[in-house]
Write a sequence for this structure.
C-alpha cells in the first residue's frame, strides 16, 4: 500500500474549519501551545505552571490530526511554541515533517526511553491503556477473547462496539499495524467492520456496553475509571479486562509534548515541557480528574486504577506509529 505523507493526508482537513479555534489574538509575550490533550486537564495544569514560573500560556485547543495538519500548513510561520497531542501518531507525523526541535536531555530524562523517540524531538508525558469493557450481565471474564485480534472472528459478530473515527481508536490501529503488519491489520479491521457496532466516542461505547446494547467494547481505561470515581451511572454494569501479555489489545498510547523548531519562545517552551515531565507536573497529572498514567516513574496513580507496571503492553517504538498509513487503511476498509 502506498503511504501518503502527512501533508497529503491530513492537510486536507479544512484549515478554515480550524480558524475559529486557532486564530485568536495573542500577546507576543505569551507561550502559544497547540493543545490536542484534554482541555480540562490542561486547564488544571497550566495555571500551576504559570504561577510557578511567571510565564503566560495561551492554549489553542483542537484535535490531534487537525492540529498536526495546521502545523504543516503553517510551516515556519506557525505561531506555535509547543505542540501537545492526545495520542502519539500525530506527534510522530509532525516530527517526520522536520518541524520539531531536539529537546534538552534534562527535559526528557524523567521519562523512560520506550515512551519517547530516540531523536529526542519530543517526549511522552502521560499515557492511557487499551482495554476491553464488558457487560457483566451478558458475559463472564472467562468468556472474553484471549486477544483483541480475536474480536474479528465470526463468533463475535454483533457483540463488539468501538469508535473508529476518533484519534483514540486510530492510535490503537497504529499499534496493531506496528506489531502485526499491514496484512494482519487489514484482516482485523475487516473482521471488526463485519462484527461490530460503531459509535461516536469512547464514552458512548462505554454507555452502550453498560446498557446492554453490546456485550463488549474497545476503549481506553480512564473512561471507565472516571465514571466510577463520579457516580458510576454508565459503568456500574460493566468491568474492565486488561489483555496484558504484550497483546495488541494491551497497547499503551502515549500523549506527546514537543517544541517547535521555529518557536519564538524556545526557552519558555522547554520549561513548559520540562514541567510536564518533571515530578511536580506529573503529580499534578496524577492528582487531576484525568486518571491517565503519568510516565515519570517517580509518580504513580492511586488505586483502584490498575498499576502501570502491571499492564504488560506490546513493545512499540512511538515514532513508528504511522497515522497516514492508518487513515489510508481505515478509509479502504470503509471506516472513514
Amino acid at each position: 500500500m502506498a503511504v501518503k505523507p502527512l501533508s497529503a493526508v491530513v492537510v486536507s482537513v479544512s484549515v478554515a474549519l480550524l480558524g475559529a479555534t486557532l486564530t485568536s489574538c495573542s500577546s507576543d509575550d505569551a507561550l502559544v501551545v497547540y493543545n490536542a490533550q484534554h482541555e480540562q486537564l490542561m486547564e488544571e495544569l497550566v495555571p500551576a505552571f504559570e504561577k510557578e514560573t511567571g510565564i503566560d500560556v495561551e492554549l489553542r485547543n483542537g484535535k490531534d490530526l487537525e492540529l498536526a495538519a495546521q502545523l504543516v500548513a503553517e510551516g515556519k510561520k506557525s505561531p506555535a511554541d509547543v505542540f501537545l497531542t492526545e495520542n502519539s501518531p500525530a506527534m510522530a507525523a509532525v516530527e517526520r515533517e522536520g518541524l520539531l526541535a531536539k529537546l534538552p536531555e534534562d527535559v526528557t530524562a524523567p521519562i523512560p526511553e520506550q515512551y519517547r523517540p530516540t531523536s529526542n524531538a519530543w517526549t511522552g508525558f502521560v499515557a492511557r491503556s487499551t482495554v476491553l469493557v464488558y457487560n457483566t450481565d451478558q458475559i463472564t471474564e472467562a468468556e472474553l477473547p484471549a486477544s483483541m485480534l480475536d474480536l474479528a472472528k465470526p463468533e463475535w459478530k454483533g457483540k463488539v462496539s468501538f469508535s473508529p473515527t476518533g484519534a483514540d481508536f486510530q492510535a490503537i490501529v497504529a499499534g496493531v499495524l506496528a506489531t502485526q503488519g499491514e496484512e494482519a491489520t487489514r484482516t482485523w479491521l475487516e473482521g471488526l467492520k463485519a462484527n461490530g457496532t460503531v459509535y461516536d466516542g469512547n464514552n458512548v461505547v462505554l454507555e452502550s456496553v453498560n446498557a446492554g446494547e453490546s456485550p463488549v467494547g474497545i476503549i481506553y481505561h480512564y473512561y471507565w475509571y472516571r465514571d466510577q470515581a463520579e457516580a458510576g451511572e454508565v459503568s456500574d454494569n460493566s468491568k474492565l479486562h486488561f489483555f496484558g501479555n504484550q497483546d495488541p489489545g494491551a497497547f499503551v498510547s502515549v500523549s506527546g509534548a514537543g517544541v517547535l523548531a521555529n518557536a519564538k519562545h524556545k526557552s519558555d517552551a522547554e520549561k513548559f515541557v520540562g514541567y510536564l515531565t518533571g515530578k511536580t507536573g506529573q503529580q499534578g497529572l496524577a492528582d487531576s480528574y484525568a486518571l491517565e498514567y503519568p510516565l515519570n516513574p517517580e509518580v504513580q496513580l492511586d488505586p483502584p486504577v490498575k498499576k502501570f507496571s502491571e499492564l504488560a503492553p506490546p513493545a512499540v517504538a512511538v515514532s513508528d506509529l504511522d497515522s497516514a498509513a492508518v487513515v489510508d487503511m481505515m478509509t479502504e476498509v470503509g471506516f472513514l
In short: The beta strands are 31-35, 57-61, 82-84, 123-135, 160-162, 196-198, 216-220, 238-241, 252-259, 293-294. The domain at 128-251+324-333 is CATH 3.40.190.10 (D-Maltodextrin-Binding Protein; domain 2). The two ends are 17 Å apart (CA to CA).
